[in-house]
Amino acid sequence: MKRILHLALICAGIGIFAASTSCSSEYDATPQVPGRDTIKNPLRGDFTAMVDGLTFVANSKYVSDQTINGIRVLTITGVMDSPNKDPETNQTISLSITNYNGVGSYPIQLGTAGIYTVRKDGDPTVFQAKSGDSTAMITITSDQGNVTGNFSFVVAPNGMGTANNHVIAGGTFDIPK
């Protein structure tokens, strides 16, 4: 019995020593992949706003700057998870500028949109920014390296009416391209 206990202690000691020394550097699953440091990470950057006076802080952020058939479209999206991280329940704010021409202010009108989506138990409710409101604006302050700017607008079902509106104010973003 003493021999088995002694052998078990030796094996445990060897296991602890091996575990403490074998993982001394960070694991890299793709060391040979060129450009792996440029892969987009949706956790990087900042995207915040006030929605009806409540703080919206996006857990995931995305930027897309593409030219399709000669038309440049910039899309910026922030997704705020539910408190219990339910994948079927979240809130999303998405900004889209068609005919994007670089740094500047873009009023909400044809080609420039703000969309607020509330998803509960997998069922989305979509609200669009009201066009024609002189205070509804998306402003891009930088698009080199990071896309940075601010936004504010009022959203409504289908972008019209006064029922079930939501005020999205003080929105800011600073997201790597």
Short description:
The protein has 177 residues and is mainly beta. It contains 1 helix and 11 strands, in the order αβββββββββββ.
- Number of distinct helices: 1
Helix proportion:
10-25%
- How many β-strand runs? 11
Q: Which regions are unreliable across 5 or more consecutive residues at pLDDT < 50?
A: 4-25
Estimate nothing, just give the exact number of structural domains.
Answer: 1
Strand portion: over 45%
What do you see in this structure?
The protein has 177 residues and is mostly beta strands. Helix content is 12%, strand content 50%. Strands 1, 2, 3, 4, 5, 6, 7, 8, 9, 10 and 11 form an 11-stranded antiparallel β-sheet that branches. The protein is built from 1 helix and 11 strands. The model is unreliable at 4-25 (pLDDT under 50). The chain has one domain (40-176). It has one helix spanning 2-22; strands spanning 46-51, 54-57, 60-68, 71-81, 90-98, 104-107, 112-120, 123-129, 137-142, 146-157, 166-176.
Set down the secondary structure blueprint.
Elements: H1 2-22, E1 46-51, E2 54-57, E3 60-68, E4 71-81, E5 90-98, E6 104-107, E7 112-120, E8 123-129, E9 137-142, E10 146-157, E11 166-176
Antiparallel strand pairs: 1-2, 1-11, 3-4, 4-5, 5-7, 6-9, 7-8, 8-10, 9-10, 10-11
Keywords:
single chain; 177 residues; mainly beta; 11-stranded antiparallel beta sheet; globular
